Structure of DUF3566 domain-containing protein:
Amino acid sequence: MSENNEGQQMPEVGHAPRVARSASSQPLIGEDQVQAHEGASSPASGGVKVREKRRGGAPRARRMSLSLTRIDAWSAAKVAFMLSIAGGIIQIVAVAILWGMLNMVGVFDQVTQIVSSTGLDAGGFDLTNVFSLSTVLSTATIFSIVEVVLITVLVVILTLLYNVVSTLVGGIHVTLGDD
């Protein structure tokens, strides 16, 4: 007896379980792998229930050959938009941390001193005022917004191009296996 989703007992059907086979109708694993699998699945304690042998021998690996022939442009746009938003936030936080570290080490003050010592100081040049935290973060935010729009548009264009090309060549073929 087996149970369905509600936990009710259902009688088992007398059909053998489906076994994946290769294109030549041969099992996907060899006899040595069958013996190794049987030896590895033996329980160490007597209380553990051993999987019953399937009809026709040992369990077989399942493989399925699939083709990615079409990508939904709207779905790709949503994923690209969310990932580029996350990338933009990471970029803004990284710029803020980098600015804080450069300010803490004193890079801005040292560059200002170097410019002053060369005589190029025309009117009280102060690099900290030019590259203030608010200016740097505003620039990084604007750059991130532009990146979000560009990445989203490019992903939609690439998705549409993939759909056109996959109608010509059949898409990307993938073989999935169950180990």
Q: What stands out?
A: Strands lie at 2-3, 9-10, 62-68, 172-178. The longest helix spans residues 133-169. The chain has two domains: 1-59, 73-178.
